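Bit of a strange request maybe. I'm writing a small parser for structure token strings and I need a real example to test against, not something I typed by hand. Could someone generate the tokens for this chain?
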Amino acid sequence: MKKRLVRPTLVLVCIALVALPLFAQRAKPGGGGGGGGSTGCAIVETPRLSTPTTTAEPNSSVGVFDRVTNCATGKKRYTVTGSAASSCGQEWVFATGTLSFAGGESKNLSVAYPIAPDTCSGPVTVSISVYDGGTMLGRASATLTVQ
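Reply from user aminoacidic:
Good idea to test on real output. This should exercise your parser:
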């Protein structure tokens, strides 16, 4: 009877010891089988504005063009935000969206920034920011003068 219990018990213990590392690896984020394990990394180039003189008037639109590169090795999804801040404290978010990137992939962005009619005169900082969750990975800005 003793021999009948010892042998199956020993086999079960061996199987559990072999399988334990496999279960532990599956529990790790990004572990065991792929994709998405790399940390976020983004490069944001300086935005280019569609105005030849970098000046604009209230109640007009300015094209904002930029290039964002995923410098992580794996696939990533980033939130890209376009924002503006005037010298008198006004702030706007004029564009936001989620983009998927392959490892090392770059994407060109183009978005219109509508300048509000009540925007105060003076410099406005137009920025493109890239986030991975709540973490800002990169930001670049250009200055526009509102007359």
